[in-house]
Amino acid sequence: MSTPSLVKIPLPQAAATASSHPAVTPMAFVQAIVLAYERRGLSALPALEKAQIAPDLVSDASQRITALQMEALSDAAMRELDDEGLGWFARRLPWGSYGMLARASIGSDRLGLALVRWCRHHGLLADDIHLTLSEDAGLATLTIEEARDLGPMREFCLVSVLCNIHGFASWLVDEPIPVLRASFPFEAPAHASAYGILFSAGELEFDAPRARLQFEARFLSLPLARDEAALKLMLQRALPIQVRPYRRERRLVQRVRQLLAADGECLQTADTLARQLHMSQRSLHRQLKEEGASLQALKDEVRRERAIGLLLRTSRPIKRIAQACGFLNDKSFIRAFRLWTGLSPSEFRKSLRASQT
Length: 357
Fold this sequence. Notes:
With 357 residues, the chain is α+β, with helices and mostly antiparallel strands. The chain has helices at residues 11-19, 27-39, 45-50, 67-81, 97-105, 111-125, 154-173, 193-199, 228-234, 240-243, 251-262, 270-276, 281-290, 295-313, 318-324, 330-341, 345-356; strands at 5-8, 25-26, 64-65, 129-136, 139-146, 181-184, 203-206, 211-216.
C-alpha cells in the first residue's frame, strides 16, 4: 500500500463554502446511483428528472450537483429500489432500515453509547462492512472494516456511511462535531476538494489503511439532546443529515416555519411575522441569515410541503391547490412546482397513483 497522503482543509473556509450550498457533490456519486438502477434492470431517468440532473451530464466526472439535488436523487432511488443502501451491499436495506438503527440508539444516556449501539446494530443489517468506535488519547475514532470487495460502489459507500453516522451523531447532541481527520483507503479522487465540505474536516487522508473519522473524545460523554418525539419528526426528512454538514438547531427558523405553516392562506409577510415575533423586519431577516436561511426560502419550503400534501391526500383541481398555496394563478404554481420536484403537479400526482396500483 502506498504512503498515506494528507490534505489540510482550513475549517472556516470549508464551513463558509458549505453555508452557500454550492454545487459540490461529485458526479461520481450520481454515477454510483445510476449503476444501482442498472444492476436492478431499472431506469434511473425518472429519478434524475426529479433531481433536475441532465442525463447527458452524468457521464461527465467533472460535473457537480447541489446537496438539494443529491437529497432528491437519493430519496427517489431509495424508494424506487427499496434500498437505503443504494446498492452498496450484497443485500438490500429496505426502506426504514436506518430509521431502525436510529431508534435503537435514541434511548442511550450519552453519545458514546448511542454510537456503540449504532455500530453494533449496523452489522445486523449488512455484514459487508463492520463499524467500530474506539477512544484513545483524547481522540474518538469511527472505523469501517471492509469484509468484502465493494467494487465500484466502494467510494460512495464508505463516504455515505461515514457522512450518515457523523450527521446523526451531531443531530443527537444538537452540535456540529468537528472532524479532526477523515481517512479513506483509496487514492485521492479528482473531486477530493468536495470531501472537506462534506465532512468539514480539518485534515483529509487518502491511501489510508481503512476508512475512519476522528474527533475529540469529549463529545462521547455529552448527553443526548433528542428524544423519541424529535426522532419521529427527524425521520420524516432524514436525508439532509447525510448529504450536508449538520448545523445547530435553528430556533428562529423553526418558529418562522411554524407560523408560515399555520397560515392556511399563505398570507404571511415579513411585516406580519416580525410583529408576531416582537422584532423588527430588519432583525428578522438578519437573524434568519445568521441561521443560514431566508424568509423566501422558508416560504417556498412550506408551500412545497403543502402542495405535495394536497396532491397526496386530495383530488382537488390544480387551480385550487395553487390558490391554497398562495399562488396568484396556476401557471406560476406549475412553474414553481416543476422547479421543486422536476415534475408538474399533474405529472407528480399521476406518478403517485401509478406507484400505488
